[in-house]
Amino acid sequence: MRAGKPFRPSRCRDAPDPRGVARSGLPNRPAVRRPRRFVAGRHARQLAGAGVSAAAGERPTLLVIVGPTAAGKTAIAEEIARRFSGEIVSADAFAVYRGFDVGTGKPSRERRSEIRYHLVDAAEPGESFSAGRWAAEARRAIDDIVSRGHLPIVCGGSGFYVSALLDGLPPGEAKNPALRKALASWASSRGREAAHRFLEKNDAAAASRIPVRNLRYTLRALEIVLTTGSRVSERMIRGGPRSAPWRVIKIVIEPSRRDLYAKIENRVRGMLDAGWDDEVRQLVGSGLSLEANAFGAIGYREVAGWVSGRAGREETEREIAAATRRLAKRQLTWLARDREAMRLTPEDAVPKILQLLGRHGHTEKSG
Known about the structure:
- This protein has helices at 73-84, 109-114, 131-147, 159-166, 177-190, 192-202, 204-209, 215-228, 257-273, 276-285, 300-307, 313-335, 346-359; strands at residues 47-48, 52-53, 61-66, 86-90, 117-118, 151-156, 247-253, 342-344.
- By secondary structure, it is α/β, with parallel strands linked by helices.
- The protein has three domains: 42-169 and 238-256 and 338-359, Rossmann fold; 177-234, Histone, subunit A (Orthogonal Bundle), CATH 1.10.20.140; 258-329, Crystal structure of tRNA isopentenylpyrophosphate transferase (bh2366) domain (Helix Hairpins, Orthogonal Bundle), CATH 1.10.287.
- The strands form two sheets. The chain has a six-stranded parallel β-sheet with strand order 5-4-6-3-7-8, sandwiched between helices. A two-stranded antiparallel ribbon has the order 1-2.
- A hairpin with a 3-residue loop joins strand 1 (47-48) and strand 2.
- Helix 10 (276-285) crosses helix 11 (300-307).
- The protein starts with 46 loop residues before the first strand and ends in an 8-residue tail after the last helix.
């Protein structure tokens, strides 16, 4: 199978082909042939020990802090930013949208006045904000931070976005409007579960990070597979790392599963107490459709159901907490593939990061 040629899954009668002719039946094995082994993230060769670049020279340090939702990443990043004149580049797929504040855990304006954030409130809710667009804007933000002598800190839970930044995305067209329309028509008759099962057969890694209910992301992943013949999870630039300009320190925050789930419960309850329902009323009242990209953020459609009277507060809280736990599990699965990053508990993270930065000549601010 050659990249760039539309792929037609063998023995798959359910999936539409690029001409839009639907078939029936799902494949019983992955239809995309596994490519030659490729280690995603060649920036790993730049990392010494557990995540620190060993290369000499004047390359600026890039601190990357990732982990599951509610792991405490933001508090850690902000503490490092305070001590090292740092600025935070948000790697949250939904904090980019204006007006989506409470449910995304977006830092308050007060906190953003103390610590500068980038890629927060960067797009309108109806816009499509892809990993490629985020990575391009993140690189510009990092260059800007470095030019002013500050420490860039990428922080967020979207492992795919961070991978797009450090490893890059491949060149070439990955869009096929006719196929996209055919996929949408097929999914409307077969259902989101069938679409997700089809994706699982062809790109299990992508399916593991995309919830069944997110049909738009599922169909986009299928469009890429069928158009390029490559899995979404493997579409990396193979000619060299995009992180070469930086000395990368990559940290994965890993609380215990019990602590993480307790934090998720408390976080969801706190967001609902903080006026999440009022925020959703305002968004819907502005004319924004529940099908908008931004409403794909976990919890927003559930809160919309509560606001419209289709569910009660307690039921809504349970549903959001369960969906958030599932998201955290997908994030952990994605991050488990990264063999070079240093894994730290929330309690150990700040002192260890201070030590790592000190080794590379960074000194804390006085006073």
